[in-house]
Design goal:
3% strand, 281 residues, 73% helix, mainly alpha, two-stranded antiparallel ribbon
């Protein structure tokens, strides 16, 4: 049975002398998010302008400002005028905002999630190879792994969304049940979406509350990070991710011991009678 202190100590031992590598790997999904969000933000601003021009909003804006100035001078305030102004703005912006939102969802699914799975793969493999390259964070994008990874993550996100419709508590519980999916996919993208979800649920059965407490145990570190001009929060992320990798290793070995799966199913190959090695799919 694993303990929080044991997982954290093992994570510290793994990070010793390699902290900057761990920090770099942990920042990859965030950097991918920034690279994508900036063009999307610019595109949303550009898309809104033609819509507002086409609807005549720019001209009506000046009329509204004149009316607002008149109301402030004479105290003749009419809430209906203000509501009508915002209704017209929302009407003009709704299509561009919907398009940008859809693009944001697609980029998360097709770019950020694969990078996150690749990052998890790096954290898993770094336990076995101290000289592993950060390029592994993008290893999911190679042929044969990418679409399987996207499909598996989309499958889990869809069911997590359905659970969220039942209010927060069921969604939170299921988020912990699905917690190991990115790690399972990182180990073996070809395992299949249904199998990854089912295996994650079995791995976390009886451990969800302990995993929740493990997450809570990092709050103090994040508070210190916020006090350090918020920059310190980035310094905590590698520590938590390394601890999560140790957690996955513990749950994985427990699942194998209970015959819930085999190491080969998780992407490992047997190279000797009692030795297994990771297969980087």
């Amino acid at each position: 049975m694993w303990t929080r202190s044991d997982l954290k100590q093992r994570a510290k031992n793994q990070m010793k002398g390699r902290y900057w590598n761990y920090l770099g790997a942990s920042l990859m999904p965030q950097l991918a998010s920034y690279v994508i969000s900036i063009p999307l933000s610019v595109a949303s601003q550009i898309a809104v302008i033609p819509s507002m021009l086409g609807s005549g909003m720019m001209t009506r804006n000046f009329s509204f400002y004149e009316e607002l100035d008149r109301m402030s001078l004479y105290g003749d305030f009419d809430i209906n005028i203000l509501l009508e102004f915002y209704r017209q703005i929302l009407t003009a912006m709704i299509i561009p905002l919907v398009i940008v939102s859809l693009l944001s969802i697609l980029t998360t699914l097709f770019i950020i999630q694969p990078v996150t799975v690749g990052m998890n793969r790096w954290f898993i493999r770094s336990r076995e190879d101290r000289n592993i390259s950060l390029s592994m964070c993008f290893s999911v994008f190679k042929k044969g792994s990418y679409l399987k990874t996207v499909g598996a993550m989309a499958y889990s996100m869809f069911f997590l969304f359905l659970w969220s419709l039942l209010l927060y508590i069921p969604a939170i519980i299921k988020s912990y049940a699905y917690r190991m999916i990115p790690y399972i996919i990182a180990d073996n993208p070809g395992i299949g979406a249904k199998r990854a979800l089912k295996l994650s649920c079995r791995m976390t059965k009886g451990h969800k509350f302990e995993i929740f407490i493990l997450d809570v145990s990092f709050i103090g570190w994040y508070i210190l990070g916020v006090l350090a001009c918020c920059i310190g929060t980035y310094a905590v992320v590698p520590y938590q991710l390394a601890t999560n990798a140790e957690l996955y290793d513990e749950l994985k070995r427990d699942a194998v011991a209970k015959s819930l799966c085999t190491m080969e199913e998780l992407g490992y190959i047997r190279v000797a009678s009692e030795t297994i090695a990771p297969y980087n799919a």
